[in-house]
User: What shape does this take?
Amino acid sequence: MSTAPRPQSGVECAADSDTITNTLSSLGGPAIADVSGRAYGNFLPGWVAQFGPQYKADADDHTVGFVRFQNGASLQIEMSFGQHIDKEVVLNEFFGTQGGAIREAGQPLKLFGEAGGSYTTTTPRLPAASGSTQANFVSSILEGTPPLVTPEQGIALMRVIDGLYASSAALKTG
Assistant: This one.
């Protein structure tokens, strides 16, 4: 794990870490080869400063990154909570040689491919999610049910987050 200085929140906040964990799980949990990225803290410090010099903010508000896996797959990450945009979009996109998929928060999964020489879009009917990640964690401890996020997935998530911050720190000091 990295010893690079880490902000107090940012990419590690629950929504972002859940998105990364879900994406890694969707990819089948491939072994990570390397991670590179850049974390920016441009919006939050200025916003917090308006409340007085006693308030400080060191969280990143925009992080971008690239994860390369040992099986040849790759993952591009972009997360922000301080951008000047119309609306927040939580989106996972998967692209492969035989098809692709898009999963936008609050929207059904869409699968893209080709059949009979034509492009296809399929929206599968999937069962509704059963509770929160936190409720599942408590249930896994109290009832011994399998957790949604395994310890191995948690370690993989931290390898990605640590890699993003270490890469960003190296760019700032290098």
